[in-house]
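The instructor's notes for this session suggest beginning with a concrete chain rather than abstract definitions. Hand out the sequence below and ask the class to guess, before any prediction is shown, which regions might be ordered.
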Amino acid sequence: MSDQVLLLIPSDPTYRPAVDDANRACDLLQSFLPKADEVTVAFKDGVEFFDPGENWSGVACAACGADAEAWWFDAMDAASQAQFYDLMVTAPCCGVRVSLNDLRYAWPAAFGCFALEAVNPSENELTAEQMGELQKVIGHSLRAVWARV
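After discussion, reveal the predicted structure:
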């Protein structure tokens, strides 16, 4: 049986909140998702790709909307060589410079070095008000990634 994991990642891949703010946000998320199996904070050593796991169903160019899977793997490999600190690529489909973080992932995905994680929350999504409260505590806008692992 697989788990559903809600990941909340700052929209800026290099943003790290203060530890106290991260812990307050974790407590707040726990209060919003009291039936979750676990709610934790994850500080990563560097920028990582947070993908939707088994929910993966493709990626499109942020500039022109063309299917990007044919070139995405090579772009990811090149970006990983720089520990994902440079996410800018020239999309072969249209020649426009785009960020891997801004591509149109069919199931949302994001890059970051920090995440709030809730395992098996019973709620399917947070309200706009709840996201606003979390963003205020973290000090940055957040992206939600639903991963099936």
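Then share the key points. The chain is about 25% helix and 30% strand. The mean pLDDT is 95.
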